[in-house]
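Sorry to interrupt, but I need a hand with the structure work. Could you write out one complete protein record for me, on any chain you like? Could you add the entry underneath, on a fresh line?
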Amino acid sequence: MDLNSKYFDSIRIKPENPAEPQEPQRCEWEGCRNAGGYRAPKGRHREGEYHNFCIAHVREYNKSYNYFEGMQDDDIVAYQRSASTGHRPTWNVGVNKMGAGGSARPQWSEAFVDPFGFFGGAANGQSAEPEPRRPLGNFERRSFEALDLEGTESGQEIKARYKELVKRLHPDANGGDRSLEDRLRQIIQAYNYLKSAGFC
């Protein structure tokens, strides 16, 4: 860096004009004629606004200053809790902002664009085809037949059908009649097999 450069010579700082002395601000305290210079907040709902006091009056003002004056106890507690997070909304871990309001959690496909359908979504706005059901083996087919089902039912429907049949065929519901025990055992085995195979 060249300190003898012409650019350094052209930099000028305007000196303060001694002919115009700046008068210090007066204290805003009623009846005080001292110079101010000490700021004190004006209060709630007037954030960013300040009084200008002298040192003696700013001390007196601060002794009696109460930001929460006129607020109910519940409002004060709520304000203090909110202050711990900087008055920003927060959620419990694992809960999103939409979950608390009762609306459904958005699907991942709503948050990302998948134009080629690589992640299982529809490509180029086409409607997604329903997921094909896995083919049923002999044991699965027999289990569904034991429950008088077709094999296309959801897990909830399978459970509901199982409960209905057990209630109907149990010996306690039939006055101790044990003639339907074999059918009941068949239903329980079929349901357990479907449960272990992941159908319900």
User: Anything to note?
Assistant: Strands lie at 38-41, 50-53. Helices lie at 6-9, 55-64, 73-83, 97-100, 108-111, 138-146, 155-169, 181-196. The chain has a mean pLDDT of 79. The longest strand covers residues 38-41.
